[in-house]
Amino acid sequence: MESAVAQEHSCALVIEPRTGYVQVGWRELWAARELFYFLAWRDLKTRYAQTAIGAGWALMQPLLSTLIFTLVFSYLAKVPSDGLPYPLFAFAAILPWSLFARSLERSTLSVVTEGGLIKKVYFPRLIIPISATFINLVDFAIGFLILIGMMVWYQVVPQWTVLFLPLFVAVALLTALSVSLWLSALNVKYRDVASIVPLMTQLWMFASPVLYPASLVPESVRWFYGLNPMAGVIEGFRWALLSKAPPDWSMVSVSLGVVASLLIGGVMFFRRVERTFADVI
Amino acid sequence: MGSGTAVRVEGLSKRYRLGATHAPDGSLAGALARGVRQLVGRRAAPPPADDSLWALRDVSFEIKKGEVFGVIGTNGSGKSTLLKILSRVTEPTKGRAIINGRFCGLLEVGTGFHPELTGRDNVFMSGAILGMKREEIARKFDEIVAFAEVEQFIDTPVKHYSSGMYVRLGFSVLAHMDPDILIVDEVLAVGDVRFQKKCMGKMEDVGQHGRTVILVSHDMPAITRMCSRAILLNKGTVVEAGPAHDVVNHYLHAGHIQPCAEWPNPAQAPGNDSVRLRAVRVKTETGQVTDVIDIRKPMRIEIEYDILKPGQMIVAQFGFNTEEDVIAFIVNDRDPVWYRRPRAVGRYISTAWIPGNFLSEGTMVVGGGLFSEDPWHEHCDVPRVVGFRVVDPGTGDTARGDVTGRWEGAIRPLLKWTTDHAPF
Fold first, then answer.
1. Contact indicator for A82, A244 with CB cutoff of 8 Å
2. Is A15 an interface residue toward B (CB < 8 Å)?
3. Residue B247: pLDDT above 80?
4. Per-domain residue ranges for chain B?
5. ipTM above threshold 0.90
6. Residue of B21, B27, B96 lying closest to A280 (CB–CB)
7. CA A177 to each of CA A21, A75, A244, B409: distance values in angstroms, whole numbers, following the listed order
8. Which of A183, A205, B154, B299 has a CA that sits 20 to 30 A from residue B265's CA?
9. Are the C-beta atoms of A16 and B92 separated by less than 8 Å?
10. Architecture of the B5-252 domain
11. B102 close to A (CB below 8 A)
12. Which of A4, A12, A192 sits opposite B1 (nearest CB)?
């Protein structure tokens, strides 16, 4: 526990029941950043062990989805796509959406998955869902190369707005984290959560402008639509990269507000219940 | 807290809620239903009062810097709970512990190992989880691998390791942590005899370098040899604390098992008007009362009784149970000289001779009784009247051979083995 206890080296560490408000423990979390790196590295190394096409699987899912959505929504249902080629329109949304959905699913299960560790050794528990969220950036990066390829194919040149791209990627991750902090902690006691999440992400996708542009949503209710943080993220991502329809900023700011409050509440909730993890898992 | 104190534990208690995770109300639906009931104003049923278990109750002790401190007790006595609290895996319900210095708690060797990763990767992974810095692990890497003796396989995924290699590498990472306070649970029961000795040496080294070690073990000789002081836990409370030797003796003798039970006063002895039990004794082959038997050596158990009415056919019986209360075997007196023969009044001692290389290691609890077989009549039957420990000296000439670690079975005979071989 060197890193975690380093700052307590001179003074004594007191172990006693925690009551009431629990601190986030930023210093401890920061001191354990190497563990965060190691957990992520281990997951990456083991995820595609003994698979034939390895990281190719990371591309399979978004590519297949794009193909199917293009067939169904563009050719059959004639859904508009803000003047963009529909495959590009869809893929530019499926990519951040997959980042969010995979992060949410992995992170929700992460605490129970690492139950063996939690029962055996102490380290800041917040590391687990954080690591399980951020690791999905790797699959995202691979998919992003495909997206660049598609942009070259369709001859779409990004504008200055591309500078905003990291912001929307970050918000996608934080949204996943903010929700999964609640769900991963709840999943320790109520395993029902694990079954609810795939259902939830599926419904959530249709509530987000993945397959259709947000411009289809009536302007008067768009701020309400923004209560879904992923609505702002996906619109913003498309805008930053493809620079067609600018996002509704009131919608984006509502999204940011929702993420911030979910995140703060999630961290506090997680810290409150984490003390019982080892007893309940 | 004095500067010479490494760990101070004050009134530490831990309550577990039994069935909290399995009760129907532990489900999400149950929790929601409770919430709804509360919302609509109907009071949720209070949880049953006796659904909790105090795994640890008001435990206090102090460990000085540089001390090797032993924690002993039977299974379920609260040892693991104490370790879990000290290593911060779980939180106490009451009381507190103050820890002075960098500590490392390890409840299992190979913590953080992933089967798909190579030995090299796992050293870094496990080290990071135990709190070592990457740079620190890199510096000690060669030493860790050399100690574990897995140089050849360090780039092989550990799922292909033998259990011995796996455990050696796991222990080696732990042994190179250099913490001020090291908490170890039973890791000594790993690997082969030679590696076990190496581990013990390493642990003693740690102790001699001014570091504090908390050792939890069933291995009483190890506790007496390595620890200066110890505590004995029973049902979550400290039963005895003091010099390790005394505490170990207390554990082995008082209250738990005794090699000899005697009833000097016939009026209080088990039995009836025709037969009275007077004593049961565990003895070595040569007749000394003992509570520790070398697994290789024959031994005997004797039952002493008075026959008060003449003409009865009395049969003595012993039942051998393991520590987990599994019946190993039951034997009745079949001494051809006395079997089916009416006996005269007087004192008798019947002795059962048990061959060497037959019993299993660990504690044997023996019950004794006196019966008439035809018609069946029980004169007395005293369960758990005496007990003794069977130890394997680790010399390699027993049924265990050179294998270490857990070995199941209520008995462990050394059988005759033969091999037929046909060369190609």
1. yes
2. yes
3. yes
4. 5-252, 260-391
5. no
6. B21
7. 21, 35, 29, 50
8. B299
9. yes
10. 3-Layer(aba) Sandwich (3.40)
11. yes
12. A12
Residues 346-385 in B contacting A (C-alpha not used; CB under 8 Å):
none
User: For chain A, how many residues are written?
Assistant: 281
3-class SS letters over A17-82: CCCCCCCCCHHHHHHCHHHHHHHHHHHHHHHCCCCCCCCHHHHHHHHHHHHHHHHHHHHHCCCCCC
Q: Quickly tell me which residue has 């029902």 as its tokens.
A: A192
- The H or E element that residue A4 is part of is helix A2-5
Please state whether the predicted TM-score (pTM) of the whole model is above 0.90.
no
pLDDT tens for B269-306 read 899 989 999 999 999 999 999 888 889 999 999 999 99
Rounded CA separation B356/B359 (Å): 7
Q: How far is B61 from chain A (nearest CA, A)?
A: 14
How many angstroms separate the CA atoms of A122 and B6, rounded? 19
Residues of A whose CB is below 8 A from B31: 190
Mutate one of A9, A14, A16, A280 to test the B interface: name it (highest B CB count within 10 A).
A16
Say how far apart CA A1 and CA A230 lie, in whole Å.
38
Q: Do B96 and A15 touch (CB under 8 A)?
A: yes
Asked if B86's CB is within 8 angstroms of A119's CB, the reply is no
- Residue ranges of chain A with per-residue pLDDT less than 70: 1-11, 20-21
Share of chain B above pLDDT 90, in %: 33
Q: Which CATH architecture has domain B260-391?
A: Distorted Sandwich (2.70)
C-alpha pair distances (Å), A204 with each of A97, A98, A225? 10, 12, 12
**Nearest of B198, B200, B367, B401 to residue B295 by alpha carbon:** B401
Interface check for A3 against chain B (CB to CB < 8 A): the answer is: yes
What residues does B181 pair with on adjacent strands? B103, B212
Q: Chain B closest CA to A202's CA: distance in Å? A: 21
In terms of pLDDT, which residue wins out, B407 or B63?
A: B63
Which structure tokens are listed for B113?
């190992």
Distance CA A3, CA A10 (A): 13
Tokens 């895996």 correspond to B89
